[in-house]
Each structure stands twice: as structure tokens, then as C-alpha cells.
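U., I forgot to send this yesterday:
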Amino acid sequence: MALVETAKKVVIDKGWLSITPPSFQRAVLDRCLLLTFKPGDPVYRLGDPPGGMFGLVSGGLGVAVGQDEFSPYIGHFALPGAWFGEAAAITRQPRRIGLTATRDTQMLHLPLPKIDEIVTDDPMAWRWLALVTVGHLDTAISACDDLMLRDHVKRCVALLLRLGGCRRMTPPGAATVDIDIRQDEIATLANVARTTAGKVLGALEAKGHIAQSYRRVRLLAPDALRAMLRD
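Result:
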């Protein structure tokens, strides 16, 4: 029970649920199940049938995207407090993204029938569910905006900040942030050659702004990285 209560506190303190009314928070959390995933475990895949929602409690998630002729690729990295799955729950259409655990991960799962219970009891609950989609739209707009940066160094820096949840500001208590991502994935998302991405990451590491390890980048100085975008 202690684990469940701790998990609930995480998603109330940060992310989507933190900006919803207490009555709605209770309606969601009273119906959630706590699930665990190992690195590489899929939560759901792009194109899977519609289902419920998932809130990230601990660990990390690779968010797979892909349209038309492009194969799915990791387009974002999610941190605790993030929620996914509302689009399929609202539309009853197949999953538009895929989620894969990048490390030992805990998630709260709100099953689809429980979502139906919530909105049957309170039709206004759709407004709070839609806030998840608005948050994802804000992230997508930010990503598109950053890709318009002409300077490839700034493009890479902006990407790292977005993946670390520090694009606009550094969340309280987040002195350092770990991002589970490979160098070739960074190159793809920043629209640069892999060698270029490697040089940028090396220079940022030499300045003490980041630290690199196997399949992981640690942001050591998010504020300093953001200052680079203003220069």
C-alpha cells in the first residue's frame, strides 16, 4: 500500500494531474493500478487497439512516433508525471504512439472502462482529460519550433532540454536530469549527421554541461544550456 500511495503522490505533485481539481484527482487515482516494466518492455505499440491511460511514476519511457512511409522511431523521452493514452480513450481509435520502458519503470494504469465510469459520473471530466492532449500538443509545437533553429548546436541543445523536461525552465529539485537516448537518436531528432551530434555532445561535455554514458545523457547544467540558446 505504501508503494501505491507514494506513486499517487508523484503524479499529483507534477505533470497533468497536478493542474486538475482534487475531486478529479481522487476519481482517477482511486481507479488506477500500479504496474512495473523492465527496460525494453513495451507499454503499448503504435497501432495497438485503444485502451486506457498510463501515468509515469518512476523510470523513463521512449515515445515512438511514425507516420506514413516512415518506420516508428523514438521521438521523445518521458519523465515521471507524464501521462499518455488519452487520445485512444477519447476517440476509440488505434494508438498513435508507442511507449517502451527505457529503465526499470513504474506506471499507474487507468483502464478504459474506468475512464468511462469517471466521465459518466461527471461529464465535465472530459475537459480535464483533454488537458493531456493539450500538453502533448505544446510539446509537439515546441519540437517543431526548435527544428527551425538554423544553428545546429542550438538545435541539439534545445532538443536535450526538451527531452529532459527543461526546455522553458528547470523544474524545482531537478539539478540534474538523465535522458535514456543514443547518440544516433539525438542526431535523427536534431536533424544532423551522427558525427555532428557527437562533436556537439563532446563540446557540451567538455564545458561541464552534460555527461555521457552508455545510452544515456545526463544534463548537469540545464540553466547554462538554456543560456546558450539566448546568445
